[in-house]
Amino acid sequence: MCAERVASRIVPWVTITPIADKIHIPDEELSGLASTFGIGTVHEWRHLPDGLMNVNWRLDAEAGTFALKRVTDVPLERLRRNLGVLEFLGDHGLPVCAPILASDGSAVAETPSGGYCLFPWAAGEHIPGASLTMGQAAALGAHIARLHVTLSWAADGRTLPRTPESLAVDVTSVERAAEKAERLSAAVAERGGATAFDEEATVALEARQEMIAAYADRLPADEVPVAPYGWTHGDLQYRNLLWTGSELTAVLDWDRVAVRPYAEEVVRTAQVQFGGADGFDLERVAAFVGGYRSVAPLSTPALEDAVHRLWWKRLTDFWQLEFRYHKGDNSFDELFTQDEALLHWWTDRLDEVEAAFTSA
Question: Is the dihedral of CA 110, 111, 117, 118 positive or negative?
Answer without folding.
Answer: negative
